[in-house]
Design goal:
The chain is an alpha/beta fold. Helix 8 links the parallel strand 9 and strand 10. The two termini are about 35 Å apart.
Length: about 375
């Protein structure tokens, strides 16, 4: 990994101040455009990899048939329309989850719909599932060869037309079926806090109805559920009991928080921002608690992907030791820079060596060892 300290300095002292003076969504769109451009050429991908990525055999795992070069992935919500899959492996990610993608094209909620919380280390996100829809994204990806595992996150179209339970299930099913032969795993996002009708399938009876329909769609790859961070352990247990009798292999823990009273949030930053969910550091502790609970109660049955508040190798390692086989991030990269992925992977190797582990898999759930 080339001159990490220089990259960190350039991003945090030069680029970040420029980016953070601009509208967050405009900045995000420009980053997407640059990422797409860099991904088109083998030469630019090679230079990006040389500059940013870090590889070590201790980080390699076989996860449900997927070879992961490292456990750090991009969370859903950043690459909404699957436009960055060529460049993300070169940035250093071990996998990526694109979307969430819905049954129908969705313009999302009206702008502004993204705000930064610099003191808090988070974002307020009110995009409302903006994406091109499953047909367009599936057409873009079909036949494409990915350099790393790609997960597809699907959700219900953000529209009054899908608030009826049966229509909502049909919308999920359309998106789910569109990617039956695309990508390496699929995540059913039942926890978007920014859509019409709230989170109707985050309760056991409706989740059972949804999964009963999805089970009938041929899907020869792992299926995960992404749940909200604000649920209690008992509520998570209830969802797990439903998953136990359906085609579900794992959980993504977790989505954004809607709570404004979390101690990590600086009240003056979020005053007046009543819409949307909060990402980043305010999610970290709550996500870790859900990860630890699920690992203790059902860790032998389900793969856990930990998402929320990963800003360092120590943050990622804490989730892994709590029970996550893989971790995801996006907000940490926005605040720290793209070199963060390589920094985390290099830091994970040092932490593994310090604790005497030969492979990252040995650290999964280690916090619960006697």
């Amino acid at each position: 990994m080339f001159a990490t300290s220089v990259q960190r300095f350039v991003y945090r002292r030069v680029l970040k101040p420029i980016f953070f003076r601009q509208d967050p969504e405009d900045t995000h769109d420009r980053v997407l455009a640059v990422g797409k451009l860099l991904g088109r050429s083998a030469a630019t991908r090679a230079v990006t990899s040389w500059a940013l990525s870090y590889h070590h055999p201790a980080l390699v795992q076989n996860v449900l048939g997927m070879r992961m070069e490292n456990p750090v992935g991009l969370t859903a919500g950043f690459d909404k329309n699957a436009e960055l899959t060529d460049i993300l492996p070169a940035v250093g990610f071990g996998f990526a989850e694109v979307g969430s993608i819905t049954g129908e094209p969705c313009p999302g909620n009206p702008r502004p719909r993204l705000w930064r919380l610099p003191k808090t280390g988070g974002l307020v996100v009110w995009y409302g599932l903006k994406n091109d829809g499953c047909e367009a994204v599936a057409t873009r990806l079909r036949g494409k060869r990915f350099a790393f595992p790609v997960g597809i996150s699907v959700a219900k179209t953000n529209s009054p037309d899908t608030t009826d339970v049966e229509k909502g299930i049909a919308d999920y099913a359309k998106a789910f079926a569109a990617f039956h032969d695309i990508g390496d795993y699929i995540t059913v996002n039942i926890s978007c806090p920014n859509a019409f009708g709230g989170e109707p399938f985050a309760v056991p009876d409706r989740l059972k109805r949804l999964l009963t329909v999805l089970d009938k769609i041929p899907m020869e790859k792992p299926v995960f559920l992404k749940v909200a961070v604000d649920i209690s352990p008992a509520e998570l247990d209830a969802l797990v009991r439903v998953a136990d009798v359906h085609h579900v292999q794992g959980f993504v823990l977790s989505n954004l928080t809607k709570r404004r009273d979390r101690p990590e949030i600086h009240p003056e930053e979020i005053r007046g921002l009543d819409k949307g969910g909060v990402s980043g550091r305010p999610v970290r502790a709550a996500s870790n608690a859900l990860i630890a609970h699920l690992y203790r109660t059902a860790g032998q049955r389900y793969l856990i992907i930990g998402s929320g508040g990963v800003f360092s190798a120590e943050d990622a390692y804490e989730k892994i030791r709590a029970g996550a086989t893989l971790v995801q991030l996006a907000t940490g990269m926005i605040f720290q820079g793209p070199q963060l992925i390589g920094e985390i992977n290099k830091g994970l190797v040092a932490l593994l060596q310090k604790d005497g582990y030969a492979n990252i898999a040995q650290a999964v759930g280690a916090a619960h060892s006697p």
